Amino acid sequence: MKMNTNNFFCGEESRQSGEDPIGTGDSYYKKYIFVEFPTPWSKNAFDTKCLPENLRLLQAEICDQDLPIKLLIIYNKKLWNQNYTKVLIYHREEGLINRYNKQECQLKNIEEVVPVIKEYLLNGNLPHQTRTKVARDIFVCTHGSHDKCCGKYGYPFYQQALATLVNLSFNDVQIWQTSHFGGHRFAPTVMDFPQGRYYARLNQALLTSILTRTGEVDCFKSIYRGWSILPEPVQILEREMILQHGWDWFDYKVIGRVIEEDENGSFYHVEIKFEKPDDSLGVVYGNVVEDKSKEIYLIGDCDGKETWKTPQFYVKIATI
Fold first, then answer.
1. Which H/E stretch holds residue 258?
2. How many whole angstroms separate alpha carbon 236 and alpha carbon 69?
3. What is the spatial distance between Cα 229 and Cα 268, in angstroms, rounded to a whole number?
4. pTM of the predicted model, to two decimals?
5. What is the pLDDT of residues 236-291, one digit of tens each?
């Protein structure tokens, strides 16, 4: 048991322990739905004042039924228009892919959001769709009322990232404040869509490398949480592919699976099949093994008190 104090930050604990963030990019969700609504948000974003009750009930229903849907609140003061509410939806297809499919709509008021989402989930129809020139959405968790690390690290990073986009003249990239999506101990933590990659502990130089696909990919050893289209153990092998293939790997379509695992989650035999832009195919296998020599125990939450084992893994590539 480790008692928490007001000065405890789970992000600092994670950094100081040398925790490797790889394998923490959620792979469970087939759909990400982002609903625009201004900050500040409550600890549970869906309890926020003036947010419609039916949206809170929809979130509760998604959780109760354990649906593979991630529903989040987003905001960008510069993009906000009180005359309409944006809804962004990213959907993951099956098979060899390298990105999610995006749909976007604008609604006259937030009360329309739940009926529109339900129509989409039931029938695949999304009314009031809009065309957009935006090719990329960067989501930064700034939800400090949920975990103070996302306020301390996430919000300043978001503010600086706005300037970074301006400096890069990236008019087809939007950056959003986002409600809690997990991994606050990795703050500032970021999701990059449409690819659906998760990042940890970014700064502006690293963000620039990711946006421009320049610089050394060795940085992925410490900042990469994983690619959400792949099961978490497979994400560990996928990072090795980035280190081997460089930025070219980001144009490959992939599919991955866990072939075999042991009962205690300390060993996985995994596979990635990939297709290059020239249509050539490849496959790689790896053994993902818990590294007992790097075993660490973390609280992992600014409001937590108990420590939990946080396994660290390495991968042995079997064949390429």
1. strand 253-261
2. 23
3. 17
4. 0.95
5. 999 999 999 999 999 999 999 999 999 999 999 999 999 999 999 999 999 999 99
